[in-house]
Amino acid sequence: METPLAGGLQAVYDAVISSLQCRRPPMLQFRVLQSLMRVPSETMGFLRRARSVDILPLLSALLEDCNPEYKEVVRKFLMEFIDGCIFIMDGHTGYVSSVAFSPDGKHVVSGSSDSTVRIWNPQTGKQVERPLQGHTAPIVYVAFSADNGGIISTDKDNILRTWDAGTAEPVGAPFRGHTQSVLCVAFSPDGKRIVSGSYDQTIRIWDVEAAEATGKPVGEPFRGHTKSVLCVAFSPDGKRIVLGSYDQTIRIWDVEAAEAVAGLCSNQGDLYSNPSPSHFPVFDSSNFLLQSTVYIWLFLSLCIPPMQIIV
Predict the structure, then answer these.
(1) Domain count, the chain
(2) Is residue 173 domain-shared with residue 65, that is, in the same domain?
(3) Name one GO molecular function term (predicted).
């Protein structure tokens, strides 16, 4: 039930929003926002907040001004007084299948069923450069390299492509080696290698420089899973890769030896993984996240069985 205090606060809030919509000079906008900052924080939960995507353009004058106080009051306003959606980034003409932040947080990359890859500025919500074009099939997955300079994308025609994030140009030849859609991909920490997993139940390792010249992977595919490989990741030292599959198992491979050094299975559902420096958190989500069961496994050694469950 709305209290008198909440009702009064809503009226003040609505008046502030109306004032912003009048596009007054930056100094007046600053003072209006300052007045709202004095509202007791315990009453915030009662507000019907405006949409970020509607309000943010009204704050452009404050954001573009060099006065640091202006930027600080806008930051607080965005954090406390509007909903959480900062931008809606439009541009793709098909569904968006994959997105990723660059490691430095300065860019977002997206891939779509329209067969394009796009780079965005998360500070403005605007597209950077033109669409990255070169794929002829829907994009499945996109990822940044650790140095922020490279992008890898995969598609349903079994192709991987690398891109220069600065110029939005493709780098070298398309990577060919999988026989079905490439579902996941990751750069090694040093950016020199790429691992990919596919609907064809294999993973492949790519030397970035060599593959950009020849389009060919390193050696033979890594085999062992009986269903699609859904997720892949390098260990922080780049010497091992971990992958999860629709067959409900995880395997850890030694990159140089090209052989599995560890494995575990679960009879609870499909496995999704994300390595950290000392642990491999493994998310087992039966029935596509309906069961929401989570297991965390500690990687102990290169011997089988290599893992113990952490409780």
Answers:
(1) 2
(2) no
(3) U4 snRNA binding
